[in-house]
């Protein structure tokens, strides 16, 4: 499994960052912004107001090897969890409520006995996974 420590994916704030955003990703994000309620499949929210209270529970319930985009909305809050997207979860979009509003944080360190890939807060096989408006520490 390839794991990456991600600070901010696909949230372009400068013209240079906007130019670097792939066209397909920009189209997905634009579609989500124009009608987010219409494209969201499940909601993760603290306190039970969504379909799931943890990101991993939503990912575990996501369709496997799907050719259809599965959109998970991450409601505002701090999610203290390690997120691993399995190899057979394809076409997954995680949409947060905003940078600094939806935060995913993990607390694994190499010094605590974890291997370097295990220290990543979000780990995924890269098969069309999109994250937007989420800060990962």
* N/C terminus separation: 19 Å
Q: CATH class, anyone?
A: Mainly Beta
Q: What characterizes the major β-sheet?
A: 4 strands, parallel
- The secondary structure category is alpha/beta
Brief characterization of the structure:
The protein has helices at residues 15-20, 23-34, 36-39, 55-60; strands at 3-4, 42-44, 70-74, 77-80, 83-85, 92-96, 102-105, 122-124, 129-132, 135-136. The chain is α/β, with parallel strands linked by helices and 137 residues long. The chain has one domain (3-136): Pectate Lyase C-like (3 Solenoid), CATH 2.160.20.10.
Walk me through this protein's architecture.
It is a single chain. The chain is α/β, with parallel strands linked by helices and 137 residues long. The chain has four helices and ten strands. The chain has one domain (3-136): Single-stranded right-handed beta-helix, Pectin lyase-like (Pectate Lyase C-like, 3 Solenoid). Helix 4 links the parallel strand 2 (42-44) and strand 3 (70-74). The two termini are 19 Å apart. The model is unreliable at 1-14 and 16-22 (pLDDT under 50).
